[in-house]
Amino acid sequence: MSQQTEPNDDAVSPVETALHQLERAAGHLDLSDGMLEQLRHPTKSVEVSVPIRRDDGTVDVFSGYRVQHFEVRGPYKGGMRYHPSVSAEECTALAMLMTWKCAVMDLPFGGAKGGIVVDPATLSTREKEQLTRRFAEELREVVGPTKDIPAPDMGTDAQTVAWFMDAYSMQEGETVPGVVTGKPTVVGGTQGREEAPGRSVAIIAREALDYHDYDVDGGLYDETGLDVSSVPADGAEHGRLRDYDAPRRISNAELLELDVDVLIPAAVGNVLTADNAGRVRAGIIVEGANGPTTAAADSVFEDRAIPVVPDILANAGGVTASYFEWLQHINRRSWSREAVHEELESEMLDAWADVRSAVEERGVTWRTAAYVVALSRIGDALNARGLWP
């Protein structure tokens, strides 16, 4: 793509960014115009109103969404988030990312995303439960273990999806644990699911460092460093780390521009932009969050020869472990934590090898290579199934 057609951060929506990445990768493949046109649009987008009675007796109505992007390889799969930024557009972009992520991992799922426009911090536990149960009822016709399988995301957790599963099951007249993944283990969740996204990022970061000849055989020790056991405890107690007693504090913006070997943006999207990409001093970027790098920043990093390992590969541990949980429901068999870790390592290394081969054979970036792998698999599935009249 020419420099003139590169997106500008200020003007580009999440969907436009997702489409830009799709178009760029499609240029390396022999995909028909019709196939590309299908991939540009979600299959279904649902908007619902979710009323709840607040603790003070008043009634509030919240907007909820579920976007299902593409199911040619299997049922839809994707997170369910509670956040003020949730919108149909955001869910559409993230559903597209889930389609590519599942395909690059060779999982039998299509992409979906959804959530409710709400700040969960403003909800009591009872209100959050009521909101979740009503949301499950509103979505009951479009979700299910062979249709669309939600999972925890920003602002939701294992308890949230357990409520969702219970509400769905009550309406179905039978317990249906497979309608969601990421549940507590006592109601059918899999061990190792919670740490899977972080483990996959670590595995891929390790492989990327090795590939680019970084020394990962040792470490650095500083006796005045942070107490790593108390930092998470402080965050859990206060909900933030600003109260932790540290000799120096830096902003999020400064953090992204530190002189480091590896930068792992692992919180929210669009934090690496055209504005700060020129000041990033990392040798390698491994995306732990969904969509942390804008298309304009991507171009800067490519010009500066800074490898960027994309989210659809690096943080795919979450959906991969969800796949393991889904399999366990189908087979009525539980896996040990060790088995989940071993299977996750194997799946991540297989995906890494596939993407690495595309990088080497086509001379493209890691992101484009990951998209090429994903689109090739989706294209093969589309060709095999054909187009229903």
Keywords:
389 residues; Glu/Leu/Phe/Val/Trp_DH_C; 13 helices; five-stranded mixed sheet; alpha/beta; three-stranded parallel sheet; 8 strands; single chain
Q: Secondary-structure map with pairings?
A:
Blueprint: H1 14-26, H2 33-39, E1 44-53, E2 59-70, E3 76-82, H3 88-104, E4 110-116, H4 125-138, E5 148-152, H5 158-172, H6 196-211, H7 230-238, H8 252-256, E6 262-263, E7 284-286, H9 295-303, E8 308-309, H10 311-314, H11 317-331, H12 337-362, H13 366-385
Class from helix and strand fractions: alpha/beta
**Major β-sheet, in short?**
5 strands, mixed
Query: What amount of the residues lies in strands?
Result: 5-15%
Q: Give the end-to-end Cα distance, rounded to a whole number of Å.
A: 34 Å
Shape: globular
State the total count of DSSP E strands. Answer: 8
Compute the average pLDDT.
89
Strand order of the largest sheet: 1-2-4-3-5
Question: Approximately how much helix is present in the residues?
Answer: 40-55%
Q: What series of H and E elements makes up the topology?
A: HHEEEHEHEHHHHEEHEHHHH
- Rounded to the nearest angstrom, the radius of gyration is 21 Å
Sequence stretches where pLDDT stays below 50 over 5 or more residues: 217-222
How many helices in DSSP terms?
A: 13
